[in-house]
Batch of 2 targets.
Target 1
Amino acid sequence: MTMAAFQQAYASLAASPRLCLAVRADPIGALAAFDLDARERYRLASAVWQRGMDANCTLYRATRITALNAVVPLTLGVLRPVLRLVLDEYWEAHPVHEVRFAREAARFIAWLETRPATLPEPVDEIIALARRELALDEARLTAPEG
Amino acid sequence: MARVDPGGDAPRLGVGIMANLAIAPFTGMPGAVDYLAVTPDMFWIDHGPRPGGGEKRFADIPSWVAILEASGLPMVSHHIGLSIASAVPTDPGYVDQMAVWRERWRAHWLSEHLAFVAIAEGHAATAAGLALTAPFDRDVLDLAVTRARQVIERTGGPFLLENSPYYVTFDDSDMREAEFLNRFCAESGSGLLLDLHNLYCNVVNYGFSGHRFLDELDLATVIEVHIANGSELGGMYADSHAGAPPEPVWDLLDDLVGRAPNLRGITFEFHDSYLPQIGIDGVAEVIARARRAWNSRT
């Protein structure tokens, strides 16, 4: 059943401008990891030249940053000078989106802890801020109304 | 073409709004809107499938649920987690939750978008990170029809499919979009949630006539309409819910209302982050104009 592979490949393209460029350069090689038939391969090799694939890539990034911004906005603000680099590396390491915002934030914080050299000082305070924001979000979601 | 009204015994509700926290003070005013459209996924925390049972999978978010408890308005349920066009197996726990939610809040109908968000990851399913539109192929249609029938059987309610904006096209699809939607409704017994702004996005991005698209649709299947606004994104016009609908969307609405005999409601969608721009008065003006269109039905 190749439909599942097609959808996985299409989603992977939306998640990775780098993969889109690779498919432009070498469609067969860059899509070799996916179990596609000829029609599906042709469709994706054509799709990466469409203007709308840029929009899909942007939407993917907007979705993922929305999840983090909903839970750890102050942390993202502190990281602003290096945010693009940090997020690119994070999304490369974790290309699969976690729809549960708190879990996505928790995974992001755990990943930040492994990347102290990427972060501005004071690293420990930034990590602590992120953890406090996550705890606050969990308390907000479970607090009774009023 | 559909011969049976897919809205069943659902009432004609009038003009509603997509619920969000920012708009709660407006919807709380008597007569402000006739109903609330609710994306239930915003009102709960999904802890994920629990194969071994144990802890409850879905938990209320109290601040959101309070909107519904306070409103007393009729409600319709607009989902984002079914992933109706996805090749991975249906999530039965999610469908169960659709039924629980419908029963709890007496939702007059349920709806979902024509898209896939769940993708295969090894032997499991995971989220794509955005909703993507599949090609309009026969095998995708079969998949969506089967899933819609499962939802109708499990929830007992009318089910609607929403047309999506698409930013990538597959020109060798087995059929055109309108034919896909018509066949889906005829084969599944579902109705159509016709998002006129999504249609307008596709009109802008691909240069066809939205009115001619309406001519191709079986408009007897249209149960609900969405109106909204959008914005530029990566060189495309995108469905961002950025305030009051643009004039071409109103033109499409005026064209549609007299030709959709089973229409039950017109829903205004806007993202709460745009409330400072549009303002409460702006929201009220959109509702008033939509009411004029609703009342013009023949």
Target 2
Amino acid sequence: MIQNDQMSRKDFFHRLGNLTAGAAALSLFPWLESCSAQNEKLSQGEKARLGVIGTGSRGMFHLALLLQDPSARIVALCDDYAPHLEEAAALFPRARKYSDYRQLLDDKEVEGVIICTPLSLHAQMTMDAIHSGKHVFCEKAMAHTTESLDRMYNCWKESDRVLMIGQQRHFDPKYIKAMELVHGGAIGQVVGIRNYWYRNNDWRRPVPSPELERRINWRLYHEYSRGLMTELACHQLANGSWAMNGLQPEGVCGTGSILYWKDGREVFDNVSVVYQYPNGVHMTFDSIISNKHFGMGEQILGTEGTIDLVRGILYYEKSPAKSGIRQLLEKIEQGVLSNAAFAGTSWAIEDASADAGIRFAENVTVNDGASTVGAAGDGSAELMHAFCLSVISGKQPVRIVDEAYWATLLALRGDQASRERKYLTI
Amino acid sequence: MKDTLITAQRKKREILYFGLCLTAAVLVNLGAILYFGTPWYELFTQAGYTLMIAIAFYAIAAVVRLVIHLFRKA
């Protein structure tokens, strides 16, 4: 995976399809300015001095990316779980090691921190880092309660520090191209947004001894996480805001349960949530982790077409027109068949469109859902590189925190609605 | 098996019949273009379909002619 993700500055621009050069693209995706050619040039030869807090699976994923990034230098590592810290230290033997994140924040050499800890720690660690004068990259979701989310957002707003959140789709060339198509009118009026994420695994990590259960499998406990909503939905819900050009839902209803994995977990193993926008559009999120047949999907539905964001395919509602003679022959054929007496039901399946679609993104990678860490080519490398450039320049990428704020807020309100089984205003 | 002789007059007649069938097929294509409002260039691009329809017409005409011939003979 690391090999596939090797990234030079040239590769980075190539993968973004030179989108950052276009004024139209920058108006739709202003955060890409942070990795513009100008910023690249300004930061040439410089390295962001970074500290990583939390060197578990996601932290190691980012460290592997940063190892390949010419703009990054890892100077400090922190984890309160020794085996994880040692694993990361083996990769960066010259980095200083800490078991308390506050000691890392006191390290004067560290310019920016990357926070990859359990969700419940994100807000406090981010605020502490900002107060220590560090730039911050924090994994998504931003926080596990709406109160801590607001505190974190306001803390950043009042500071002059860079904050970026791990919403890698915002830097994924496939999603950027898709949103260009949506905003360029390729699918007509947006009338629906459909997200689903199906897996068939218990979402557990191996635990060496029982007392570490809650620390390692924190995703399964309400004290630390909001389960499927904050860990999976948060990514997909960001698409809605993006497709609706900043318009946010006004309400949400949902439901969920622990249906199959009755192993002491506190978060749902299946949820269905519906968000309603002021203009009547609905966005859905549906997830089950005991059946993976349909995998994951993120679809923007328009009056003239559908965009499959995950697979990078555009489908038109109407297939290209057939020639007159073919239409005539089909009409004759239908006329002949309609006169024949068929037995059986008059009800027929309304099948999906037969349109094969147009692929607008190449090299789309898929996996079977067993990896819960990250995937090659999903925008993570670009996101991490953009953070390095922002640390060097000190410039905050525009609108990116607001996008992440809304994605987290929607995830938290969706979780609340599904637990309370109510319609909630947002 | 004896040699079969196809006269020049017979050849001319079959060419005429096929020409009529081809003209009818072109007219069908023309009608379809007008009816469905499709582009005029389909007169050329759909030539394959036109030829297939012409062959179908010719085959139907051959069956009709055979039946008439058998009636006359009887």
